[in-house]
Amino acid sequence: MADTFTQRYALVTGANKGIGFEICRQLASKGMKVILASRNEKRGIEARERLLKESRSISDDDVVFHQLDVADPASAVAVAHFIETKFGRLDILVNNAGFTGVAIEGDISVYQECLEANIIAAQGGQAHPFHPKTTGRLIETLEGSKECIETNYYGTKRITETLIPLLQKSDSPTIVNVSSTFSTLLLQPNEWAKGVFSSNSLNEGKVEEVLHEFLKDFIDGKLQQNHWPPNFAAYKVSKAAVNAYTRIIARKYPSFCINSVCPGFVRTDICYNLGVLSEAEGAEAPVKLALLPDGGPSGSFFSREEALSLY
Ligand SMILES: NC(=O)c1ccc[n+]([C@@H]2O[C@H](COP(=O)([O-])OP(=O)(O)OC[C@H]3O[C@@H](n4cnc5c(N)ncnc54)[C@H](OP(=O)(O)O)[C@@H]3O)[C@@H](O)[C@H]2O)c1
């Protein structure tokens, strides 16, 4: 067991299942003390119990549970208070909680088809219209899109801002934002949004103006007219905003190591378990970035393969 000088403390959001759960397992296995955070108390407590039961090398002391809904400012303050009181600082924050804002009606293989169409679009650098062969339909409502942006972008920002003072007490503060290759600007047909996201004079106000305009166009029925992504629109825009936010805070906190990463296409609930990687494989790249040595890259977006080949 590490002594108090070497012990590192890590918080993982959305950790009751999927990639977040596995990130907790891998960090705890590598000697971190992990705060497994879940918005639902029952699901979080059960997840911690499952983790301890399944992983003999992880002891009761290595993982603690705390409730955290990233969309709820009061729960962010409560988790910060808990960490401050119990550990005095935080070394690693993994903003993993996420939501696509997309539901499927009928045949779920439409999801796989859509993913493949997006990969082709991203590789070809051109967004093609998507006409599914299957009968399934992707449903993107205003409510789902708002929740997606609130969870992915504002949730990441809220938890980061609340925990920065505790991270500043660490010798090697590290933040990993779990993003997606769907964030690529090649999948953002709106030239204005693309320009904002790729600008060197980026700031949070400009990023949030893009999110605001997107939702305004959604309400006004102008998504197509104003060239927002034709599918997974809120998810693509929110994850591009997460990458932009990653660059902004990396610049603001030069002593921190802050990066965003796509975990790969992983079999979890978010993608109807259609992924090609196991949850453990999906956790590898975020964990690698969480444990980067001092002086590592900051302000970058990594795909899984790139992150795994670092150092
Ligand atoms: N799976 C993939 O192929 C893939 C690919 C690229 C990126 N990602 C990203 O990887 C991350 C983890 O996703 P996953 O694949 O592990 O999906 P998942 O199994 O569906 O897990 C998502 C987690 O986020 C939590 N969550 C959602 N809204 C929350 C909120 N407001 N507050 C706190 N927690 C919240 C969920 O909690 P509940 O159980 O309470 O709903 C759940 O624990 C996401 O950011 C996702 O965008 C996944």
Automatic annotation (TrEMBL):
Cross-referenced InterPro entries: NAD(P)-bd_dom_sf (IPR036291), SDR_fam (IPR002347)
Sorted UniProt keywords: NADP, Oxidoreductase
SUPFAM superfamilies: NAD(P)-binding Rossmann-fold domains (SSF51735)
GO cellular component assignments: membrane
Entry EC number(s): 1.1.1.207
MF annotations from Gene Ontology: (-)-menthol dehydrogenase activity
Family per record: Belongs to the short-chain dehydrogenases/reductases (SDR) family.
Name of this chain's protein: Menthol dehydrogenase
Lineage: Eukaryota, Viridiplantae, Streptophyta, Embryophyta, Tracheophyta
